[in-house]
């Protein structure tokens, strides 16, 4: 049963609302003023709150602000009630976070419709939160508790909610793409597309078409119009992996796209506006690439608003036990076998190795050990198969 709270200093309004909403099957409680209402809302969970604006001790707008600032009550919809048709007050209430604004004398149909819509809105928000948690749990994860990896987490938490561009650096196999996905998942663009481009895997003569699209007949093989990655990522995030391998010609066009928020398809002269957040990654030292004339300095400064360096596995060996547990559980589930245990001496043997291939290499080794070794993996197994 849904629980509703009515806060109003007029007994007649309280009783009328309680009677109407109780008849609809809701459990209804009442408070005589804002202070009492706030105490009740903080002590118990309600699905919907109705609050008058003009009240002694604490008015409705103060109450609303307090509810929205409290993590426990911030998502509870609040419908404000007023006996005065003050547009400014209504606007202020809605800006503060009110779900709706009702005028006295109260209209029965309006009360019922507002209650129904507010409760549905609350349910939808909860479902969305749960869905995002499920998606996040299934998506890329950053495993480890070392100081080095915690610094990366801290930067992600700070930069993800912003629109700032991020340049992710680090050796191959460290998980730069995981960082990019986490930034996208925690951003306001999480509901939008996350489009990835591996700049090193696309031939230089095709990179412009891949990024910006092309028109039919613009080159041999262009049999129809095609949207590029910038257009596909509109409203979301574009991840340019291994951007240090991008040709200078393509770099020039990417720079223009970042400056003007628009692109032009190959074979067209019509600009197309795009709303894209760009994240980039590289395993190269771009400062050296700039000196060698292989990378544009102005593009580097456009991309490197927030630098994030992902440490090599050799710099965070204390994370190996957690990583091994994570990979072992994941791989055994994929293989449909019982989870195999790694003996403490096996973990020590893994920590003693030189991980030039970083996280990717460690996962491969764990998979090899699970497939080839017995139910309990020892240091001898590590020496034999790693």
Give helix and strand order, one letter per element, not per position: EHEHEHEHEHHEHEHHEHEEEHHEHEHHEH
- What is the spatial order of strands in the main beta sheet? 2-1-3-4-5
CATH superfamily of the largest domain: P-loop containing nucleotide triphosphate hydrolases
**Uncertain spans, ≥5 residues at pLDDT below 50?**
none
Pairing-aware structural class of the strands and helices?
alpha/beta
Q: What does the largest sheet look like?
A: 5 strands, parallel
Assess the beta-strand content as a share of residues.
15-25%
CATH fold-level assignment of the largest domain = Rossmann fold
| CATH architecture annotation name of the largest domain | 3-Layer(aba) Sandwich
Cα shape = extended
Computed CA radius of gyration, to the nearest angstrom? 28 Å
What is the overall pLDDT average?
92
- Number of H/I helices: 16
How widely separated are the two ends? 58 Å
Task: Write down the domain tally.
Answer: 3
Number of strands: 14
Residues in helix, %: 40-55%
């Amino acid at each position: 049963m849904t629980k509703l709270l009515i806060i109003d200093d007029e007994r007649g309004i309280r009783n009328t609302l309680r009677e109407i909403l109780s008849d609809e099957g809701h459990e209804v409680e009442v408070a005589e003023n804002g202070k009492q209402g706030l105490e009740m809302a903080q002590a118990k969970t309600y699905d919907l709150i109705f609050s008058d604006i003009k009240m002694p001790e604490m008015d409705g707008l103060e109450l609303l602000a307090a509810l929205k600032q409290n993590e426990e009550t911030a998502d509870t919809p609040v419908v404000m009630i007023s006996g005065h048709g003050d547009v400014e007050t209504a606007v202020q209430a809605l800006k503060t976070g009110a779900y709706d604004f009702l005028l006295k004398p109260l209209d029965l149909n309006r009360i019922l419709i507002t209650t129904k819509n507010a409760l549905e809105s609350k349910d939808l928000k909860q479902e969305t939160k749960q869905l995002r948690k499920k998606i996040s749990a299934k998506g890329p994860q950053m495993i480890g508790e070392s100081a080095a990896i915690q610094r990366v987490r801290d930067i992600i938490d700070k930069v993800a909610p912003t629109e700032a561009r991020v340049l992710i650096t680090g050796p191959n196999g460290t998980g730069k793409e995981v960082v990019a996905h986490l930034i996208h998942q925690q951003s306001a663009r999480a509901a939008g597309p996350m489009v990835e481009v591996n700049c090193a895997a696309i031939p230089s003569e095709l990179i412009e078409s891949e990024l910006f699209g092309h028109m039919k007949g613009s080159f041999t093989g262009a049999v129809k119009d095609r949207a590029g990655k910038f257009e596909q990522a509109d409203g979301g995030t574009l991840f340019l992996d291994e951007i240090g391998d991008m040709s200078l010609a393509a770099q020039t066009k990417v720079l223009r796209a970042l400056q003007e928020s628009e692109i032009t398809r190959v074979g067209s002269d019509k600009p197309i506006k795009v709303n894209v957040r760009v994240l980039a990654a590289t395993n190269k030292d771009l400062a050296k690439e700039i000196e060698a004339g292989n990378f544009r300095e102005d593009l580097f400064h456009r991309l490197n608003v927030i630098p994030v360096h992902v440490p090599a596995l050799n710099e965070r060996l204390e994370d190996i036990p957690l990583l091994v547990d994570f990979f072992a559980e994941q791989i055994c589930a994929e293989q449909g076998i019982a989870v195999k245990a790694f003996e403490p001496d096996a973990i020590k043997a893994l920590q003693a190795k030189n991980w030039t291939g970083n996280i990717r290499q460690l996962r491969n080794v764990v998979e090899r050990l699970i497939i080839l070794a017995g139910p309990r993996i020892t240091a001898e197994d590590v020496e034999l198969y790693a």
